[in-house]
C-alpha cells in the first residue's frame, strides 16, 4: 500500500479493520516519518516511540475497540493524559503527571486510538510560542496555540490531532499550516481535563486532512451520527459572506480568496448574501478580549501568585489586564455577547453557513509570535461551530483559506455544507 | 458576645482587622468545636488542626492580606488544594495530592483566608454519600453533595465553606442542615481546579450563616461590590413559583412557602405568581438528561479504566448518559436556551422569585442524600439562588425557602434576600 502516512482517519481505520495493515505497521510508518521531520518541524512536546508501539501491538492483539481502532493521534499538551506528562506549555508544570485522562483522550482511547504523543502548545494556550515551525516553510510560524497539532497533521505525521480554541487557536494554525481545523460548538464536547484558559470561551477541536473525518471523530466523542435537520443531499447551502469590521486589515490576497469563494459558490448555484450582523457585532473582538482577560486573571490566580517568575511577560500582561477589569465591565461584556448570540438565531434563518476570512493573511515570517487572532475572536465568542477550509495559497506560496461558521449544535450540517463548498472551490 | 466559632466570616474579618481577636484565636475556637463534634458529625475528609493554626499564626505575624484576613474556610473535597490531599469523594483517588490550588482557593488564600480543611463530598459530587451526618439529628442525611461544608457551617465548625452545585448540591444540604446556601450565577466563579460533574451546569457556591458573607466572598474572588439594585423605598417584587413539582413537596414545605409569601406581602412586598410556560415543565427532565450525557463524557477515564472503583449509583449515571442520543441532548440544550430567554422576560417584572428548596425535611438514613428535584430547573436556568433556613418541619428538622435572582445580579439578590430573611426568620 502506498504511503501509509497519507491516509486520513477513515482510510487508516478501514485499512486496520480489514486487516490490510496492522496498527503496528501504521504506527511505525508514522513514527518513521515523525523522526525524519521532527528536527525541522518540532511538533512534539513528548513522544516515547516504544510506548507508542506497545499501544499499537496491544490493539493488534485485542478485539476491535471502536471507530478509531489503530489510528495514531496527537494530543495538544493542554489535555491531561494519565500515561504521559502534561505541562500546558508552562515551566510551572514541567513533569506534571495528571491522575487521569481528559475526556476526549479517554473516549478516543476507548475507541481504539493510539495516543502517539503530546503536541506543542503555546504557554497555557495563550500567546508565548513553543518550538514548532511551519512545515510548509520552517522560517514561518505555524500559528498558535495548537501549533504542534496543526503542524503534525499538515506534515503527514498523523491523520488526527486535538487542539482547542479560546480566541483563534484552531482556525489560525489550520490556516497557516494548510489543513482542516474544526472547532466544536462551545459546550459541544466535554472539556474535562483540558486545562482551561477562559472557560466560557474554551472549545475543543481538532485537525484532519479530510472533512469526512470530522463527523467520524464527533461520533466517538458525542455519538452524533446523523442530523435530523439535514437538507437533501447535495442541495446548495445558503451562504452568508461576512467581511467583518476588520475587513480592511485583511491582506489583499485574503480578501480575494474570500470574495472569490463567494463568487464561485454563487456561480455553482449557492444562494450567497451578505447578511446584516446583530447589533454590537462590530465590538465583539474587544468584548472577547475583555471576557478572556477577566477569566484568565481568575483562573490563573495560583500560578500568578506563586510562580510569577515562570510566567511569560505576555501572560502576566493579560492577567494584569484582567485583574484590573471591573466585574461590572465583565458583566456588560457578557451581556453584549448574549444579545449578539440571540441575534444570530435570526441571521441563521436566512443562511445555512457563514463564510469569513480565517486570518489576516498567510503565516507571518518568524517563530517568535503566532500571528494575529483577530478574525476568529468574534466567532469563538458567539460559540458557533467553525471549520477552516484550506482552499489555496497566497503570494508567498503559503496556505490561505476561508472560515466557515455553522449554526449552534449543527456541527455535522456545517461539515456537510463545507464539503459541498469544498467540492466547488478546489 | 457569641463564641468566636459562631461568628460569620465578615464579623471575623472585622475582629481580626481591628485586633480585637487574632486569627489564631478564631481558628483555635473552630478547632475546639471540631474536636468536640467531629466524631458525631463527620464534616471533614481531611483536617490537620496544627497546620490550620500555623496558617493563622503566619497571618497574625504578617501584614493584612485582604478581605478574608483570618477567616477560616472549609473547602469541599472536589476542590484542589496544593497542601492537602483532594480525593473527589472517589475510591479512584484515595491519596491524590494536587500540584496547585484551585483558583478559588488561591484567591481566598491571597485574600488572607485560613484553609481549615477539606470537607466531605459525595463521590464526584453526585449521589454516593460520604460519612457526614446531619448535625440536627445524626440519623438523618445532610443532603449532598456539599455535605461536609453544610454540616460544618450549620454546626459552627467554621463560618463559611465552599460548595458546588450541578443539580441541588448547595441548595439541598443547606436546606437540610438549616444553614444559608448560595449558588452563584453559573460562570461567575472560575472552576479551575474544581472536579467537574457536568460541565453544562457546574457552579460554585457557599454554605454560610450570614448573608453578608456571600457579598464578602464575591468581593474577594471577583471584585463584585454591587449591593442593592432597587431603591430601599420601592416594594420588593416577589414572584412566588410553586414549580411544576409542587405536588411532590410535603405539607410542611408547602405551608412554609405559602406562609412566607403571605408574610412578605403583609410586610409590604408585591407578591404574585408568575405563569411559567408549559416548556418549563420539561426542564427537570432536560436537566437530568444533559447532566448524565455530560457526566458520561467527563468521567470516561474512570469508567473505562477504574469501573470497579465506582459506586453503583455513579455507574448507573454513566450508563444512562451513554445511552442518551446526541439528538436528544441537543434538543434539551436548545430548549434550555429558549427557557432562559423566557425567564429573563418574566424576571423583568420581579426582583426575586420564591420557590421550594427541597421536597421536605432531611430524610432519615445516611445511605442516600435526598431528592434534588427542586433545584434542577433553576440550575439549568443559570440563575443565582440563595436558600434561607426559615422554618422547622414536622420532625423538627429545618426547612428552607429558595430565593432566586437574575443572572450576574447576585449582589442585588443578596440585598433582597436579606430583606426577606429579616421578615421570615
Core attributes:
heterodimer, A: 426 residues, alpha/beta, 14 helices, 14% strand, globular, B: 425 residues, eleven-stranded mixed sheet
pLDDT average of chain B, as an integer? 97
H/E series of chain B, N to C? HHEHEHEHEHEEHEHEHHHHEHEEH
Oligomerization status of the protein chains: heterodimer
How big is the Rg of chain B? 20 Å
Please identify the structural class of chain A as seen in this structure. Answer: alpha/beta
Total strand count of chain B, please? Answer: 11
Query: Which stretches of chain B of 5+ consecutive residues score pLDDT under 50?
Result: none
**Structural category of chain B:** alpha/beta
Separate helix tally of chain A:
14
Can you give the mean pLDDT of chain A?
96
Uncertain stretches of chain A: none
Largest sheet of chain A: 11 strands, mixed
Fraction in beta strands of chain B: 5-15%
The rough form of chain A would be described as globular
Estimate percent helicity of chain B: 40-55%
What is the rounded distance between the termini of chain A? 26 Å
Spatial order of the strands in the main sheet of chain B?
A: 1-3-2-4-6-5-10-11-9-7-8
Radius of gyration of chain A: 20 Å
What does this entry look like structurally?
The complex is a heterodimer of chains A (426) and B (425). Chain A is an alpha/beta fold and 426 residues long. Helices cover 40% and strands 14% of the residues of chain A. Chain A has helices at 9-17, 23-41, 49-61, 103-110, 147-154, 171-177, 213-222, 252-267, 284-299, 301-306, 313-323, 327-350, 374-381, 411-425, and strands spanning 44-47, 72-76, 114-119, 160-165, 180-183, 203-208, 238-241, 271-273, 353-357, 386-393, 399-405. Chain A starts with 8 loop residues before the first helix and ends with a helix. Chain B is of the alpha/beta class. Chain B has helices at residues 9-17, 23-41, 49-61, 103-110, 147-154, 171-177, 212-222, 251-266, 283-298, 300-305, 312-323, 326-347, 373-380, 410-424; strands at 44-47, 72-76, 114-119, 160-165, 180-183, 203-208, 237-240, 270-272, 352-356, 385-392, 398-404. In chain B, strands 1-3-2-4-6-5-10-11-9-7-8 form an 11-stranded mixed β-sheet, sandwiched between helices. In chain B, β10 (385-392) and β11 form a beta hairpin. Chain B starts with 8 loop residues before the first helix and ends with a helix.
Amino acid at each position: 500500500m502506498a504511503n501509509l502516512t497519507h491516509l486520513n482517519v477513515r482510510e487508516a481505520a478501514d485499512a486496520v479493520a480489514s486487516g490490510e495493515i496492522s496498527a503496528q505497521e501504521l504506527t511505525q510508518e508514522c513514527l518513521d516519518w515523525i523522526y525524519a521531520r521532527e528536527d525541522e518541524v518540532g511538533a512534539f512536546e513528548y513522544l516515547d516511540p516504544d510506548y507508542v508501539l506497545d499501544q499499537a501491538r496491544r490493539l493488534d492483539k485485542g478485539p476491535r475497540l471502536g471507530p478509531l481502532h489503530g489510528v495514531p493521534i496527537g494530543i495538544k499538551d493542554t489535555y491531561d493524559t494519565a500515561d504521559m506528562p502534561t505541562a500546558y506549555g508552562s515551566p510551572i508544570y514541567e513533569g506534571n503527571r495528571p491522575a487521569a485522562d481528559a475526556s476526549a483522550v479517554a473516549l478516543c482511547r476507548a475507541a481504539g486510538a493510539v495516543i502517539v504523543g503530546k503536541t506543542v502548545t503555546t504557554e497555557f494556550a495563550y500567546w508565548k510560542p513553543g518550538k514548532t515551525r511551519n512545515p510548509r516553510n520552517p522560517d514561518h510560524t505555524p500559528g498558535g496555540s495548537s501549533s504542534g497539532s496543526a503542524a503534525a497533521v499538515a506534515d503527514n505525521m498523523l491523520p488526527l490531532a486535538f487542539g482547542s480554541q479560546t480566541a483563534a487557536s484552531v482556525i489560525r494554525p489550520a490556516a497557516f499550516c494548510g489543513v482542516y481545523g474544526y472547532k466544536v460548538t462551545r459546550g459541544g464536547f466535554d472539556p474535562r481535563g483540558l486545562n482551561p484558559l477562559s472557560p466560557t470561551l474554551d472549545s475543543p477541536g481538532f485537525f484532519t486532512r479530510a472533512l469526512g473525518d470530522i463527523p467520524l471523530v464527533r461520533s466517538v466523542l458525542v455519538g452524533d451520527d446523523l442530523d435530523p435537520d439535514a437538507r437533501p443531499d447535495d442541495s446548495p447551502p445558503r451562504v452568508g459572506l461576512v467581511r467583518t469590521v476588520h475587513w480592511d486589515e485583511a491582506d489583499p490576497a485574503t480578501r480575494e480568496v474570500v470574495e472569490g469563494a463567494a463568487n464561485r459558490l454563487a456561480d455553482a448555484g449557492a444562494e450567497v448574501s451578505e447578511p446584516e450582523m446583530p447589533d454590537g457585532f462590530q465590538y465583539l473582538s474587544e468584548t472577547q478580549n475583555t471576557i478572556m482577560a477577566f477569566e484568565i486573571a481568575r483562573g490563573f490566580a495560583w500560578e500568578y501568585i506563586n510562580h510569577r517568575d515562570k510566567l511569560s511577560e505576555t501572560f502576566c500582561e493579560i492577567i494584569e489586564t484582567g485583574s484590573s477589569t471591573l466585574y461590572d465591565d465583565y458583566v456588560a461584556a457578557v451581556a453584549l455577547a448574549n444579545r449578539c448570540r440571540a441575534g444570530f438565531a435570526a441571521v441563521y434563518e436566512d443562511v445555512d453557513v457563514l463564510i469569513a476570512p480565517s486570518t489576516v493573511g498567510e503565516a507571518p515570517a518568524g517563530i517568535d509570535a503566532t500571528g494575529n487572532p483577530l478574525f476568529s475572536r468574534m466567532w469563538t465568542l458567539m460559540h458557533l461551530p467553525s471549520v477552516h477550509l484550506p482552499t489555496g495559497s497566497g503570494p508567498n506560496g503559503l496556505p490561505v483559506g476561508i472560515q466557515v461558521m455553522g449554526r449552534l449544535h449543527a456541527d455535522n450540517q456545517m461539515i456537510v455544507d463545507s464539503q459541498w463548498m469544498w467540492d466547488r472551490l478546489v | 458576645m457569641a463564641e468566636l466559632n459562631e461568628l460569620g466570616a465578615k464579623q471575623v474579618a472585622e475582629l481580626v482587622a481591628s485586633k480585637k481577636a487574632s486569627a489564631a484565636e478564631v481558628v483555635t475556637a473552630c478547632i475546639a468545636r471540631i474536636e468536640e463534634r467531629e466524631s458525631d458529625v463527620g464534616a471533614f475528609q481531611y483536617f490537620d488542626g496544627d497546620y490550620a493554626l500555623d496558617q493563622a499564626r503566619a497571618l497574625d505575624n504578617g501584614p493584612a492580606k485582604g478581605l478574608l484576613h483570618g477567616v477560616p474556610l472549609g473547602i469541599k473535597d472536589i476542590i484542589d488544594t496544593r497542601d492537602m490531599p483532594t480525593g473527589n469523594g472517589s475510591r479512584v483517588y484515595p491519596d491524590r495530592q494536587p500540584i496547585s490550588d484551585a483558583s478559588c482557593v488561591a484567591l481566598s488564600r491571597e485574600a488572607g483566608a485560613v484553609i481549615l480543611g477539606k470537607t466531605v463530598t459525595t463521590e464526584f459530587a453526585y449521589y454516593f454519600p460520604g460519612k457526614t451526618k446531619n448535625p440536627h439529628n445524626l440519623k438523618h442525611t445532610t443532603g449532598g453533595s456539599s455535605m461536609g461544608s453544610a454540616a460544618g457551617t450549620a454546626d459552627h465548625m467554621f463560618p463559611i465553606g465552599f460548595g458546588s452545585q450541578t443539580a441541588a448540591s448547595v441548595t439541598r444540604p443547606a436546606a437540610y442542615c438549616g444553614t444559608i446556601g448560595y449558588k452563584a450565577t453559573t460562570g461567575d466563579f472560575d472552576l479551575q481546579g474544581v472536579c467537574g460533574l457536568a460541565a453544562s451546569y457546574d457552579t460554585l457556591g457557599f454554605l454560610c450563616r450570614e448573608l453578608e458573607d456571600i457579598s464578602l466572598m464575591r468581593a474577594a474572588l471577583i471584585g463584585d461590590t454591587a449591593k442593592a439594585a432597587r431603591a430601599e423605598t420601592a416594594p420588593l417584587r416577589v414572584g412566588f413559583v410553586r414549580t411544576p413539582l409542587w405536588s411532590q413537596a410535603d405539607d410542611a414545605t408547602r405551608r412554609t412557602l405559602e406562609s412566607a409569601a403571605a408574610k412578605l406581602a403583609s410586610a409590604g412586598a408585591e407578591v404574585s405568581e408568575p405563569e411559567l410556560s408549559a416548556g418549563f415543565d420539561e426542564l427537570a427532565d432536560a436537566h437530568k438528561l444533559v447532566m448524565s450525557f455530560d457526566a458520561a463524557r467527563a468521567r470516561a477515564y474512570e469508567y473505562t479504566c477504574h469501573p470497579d472503583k465506582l459506586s453503583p449509583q455513579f455507574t448507573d449515571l454513566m450508563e444512562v448518559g451513554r445511552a442518551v442520543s446526541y439528538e436528544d441532548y441537543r434538543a434539551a440544550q436548545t430548549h434550555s436556551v429558549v427557557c432562559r430567554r423566557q425567564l429573563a422576560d418574566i424576571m423583568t417584572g420581579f426582583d426575586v422569585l420564591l420557590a421550594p428548596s427541597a421536597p421536605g425535611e432531611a430524610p432519615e438514613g445516611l445511605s442516600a442524600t435526598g431528592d434534588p428535584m427542586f433545584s434542577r430547573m433553576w440550575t439549568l436556568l443559570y440563575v443565582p439562588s440563595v436558600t434561607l433556613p426559615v422554618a422547622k418541619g414536622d420532625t423538627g428538622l429545618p426547612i428552607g425557602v429558595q430565593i432566586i435572582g437574575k443572572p450576574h445580579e447576585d449582589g442585588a439578590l443578596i440585598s433582597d434576600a436579606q430583606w426577606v430573611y429579616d421578615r421570615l426568620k
